[in-house]
Amino acid sequence: MQIDTPQRGFSFQAEGPLDMRMNPNQRLTAAEIVNRYGERELANLIYQYGEERRSQRIARAIVRARPIQNTRKLAELIAACLGGRREASRPAYRRKREGSGAAARTIKPLIHPATRTFQALRIAVNQELDRLTQFLIQVPDCLLPGGRIVVISFHSLEDRPVKQQFRRWQQEGTMRTLTRHVVRPSLEEVRRNRRARSARLRAAERVAEPGAVSSE
Q1: Are 154 and 198 in contact (CB under 8 A)?
Q2: Nearest to 69 by CA among 15, 2, 119, 28
Q3: Secondary structure class of 185 (helix, strand, coil)
Q4: Residues 165, 170, 171, 172: is their CA dihedral positive or negative?
Q5: For the residues 149-153, what does the mean pLDDT come to?
């Protein structure tokens, strides 16, 4: 899997080049963003695509430390900038009970301070949100009646346009939503596959005739 390949530069868990390209043939890399963007432009990118409240502090530290050519140096810089490293490889699950006898549910595990910045860089390099929007627009034309689409998103920036498009399809009557509420992984699944912890699943089905679905 490309995200586990250090040479692709997606992860801060191992040292690799600041690449992050899904398509190795495209021109823009994470290294170009990190080493060439202005401080304000970099801060805005980290805030917009990483939802990182401390984006200005991170951008300032990056600009001062240039050039930065590998993932480990960037991750260590961000951790130092934000005041320490919270272990990502050992998630600290806490439990909260809702009423008598209710099943315990998970609270978000602690994450590495560089997680949001790496997410922002990856999204920017690959234009992920634009490509997701373009894909969703084409879905009804690609499915025969009864055909289904299942989308798994891993953060709110992905899930928001998916949710909005599913609602639009329902209103237009082109697709029927199969998941009334977003489907989340169980605690057991997260224990077996930690990457599933933030997954959100939505599904829809193509209807035979436009307008055949109630918008309620």
Answers
A1: yes
A2: 15
A3: coil
A4: positive
A5: 97
User: From the CB of residue 208, how many other CB atoms can be counted at a distance below 10 Å?
Assistant: 8
- The 10s digit of each residue's pLDDT in 16-73 is 999 999 998 999 999 999 999 999 999 999 999 999 999 999 999 999 999 999 999 9
As a whole number of angstroms, the distance between CA 17 and CA 74 comes to 10
At residue 129, the pLDDT reads: 96
pLDDT band at 83 (very low <50, low <70, confident <90, very high): confident
Query: Alpha-carbon distance 70 to 118, whole Å?
Result: 12
Q: Per the structure block, which two tokens stand in for 159? A: 């899930």
> Which domains can be identified in the chain, with CATH numbers?
2-126 (1.10.150.170), 128-206 (3.40.50.150)
In whole angstroms, what is the distance from residue 179 CA to residue 202 CA? Answer: 6
Taking each helix axis from N to C terminus, what angle separates 55-65 and 39-50, rounded to the nearest 10 degrees? 140
This prediction has a pTM of 0.79
